[in-house]
Hints:
107 residues; 5 helices; 78% helix; mainly alpha; 0% strand
Amino acid sequence: MSQTLDSLSYGAQVGVVLPLLTAVVQKPAWSAKYKKVVAVVAALVAGVLTVAADGGWGQFQHGQLTAATFLGVLAASQTSYDLLWKPSKLAPWIEALTTRKTPQQAE
């Protein structure tokens, strides 16, 4: 039980900052559906890295802990984006800041 809570905790910690990292890649002009796909894929990648960092690659043999970490990352990233980063305009600001402008847009 304690290991499951630790996995959820690590996943949640990573998930809270993940939307800010994802915002570096995403572009404001992308559709909401495409942004959601990118966010879910980023959460899965972050979940893999979190599991590996927590217990090494051998940790993947424990399906319940791996699933708990993935779900923790995904839930925390989506929730923190909706409740914290989007309303504060920080994630959208990072998206706009990291978007390359064409010469026509720069004028």
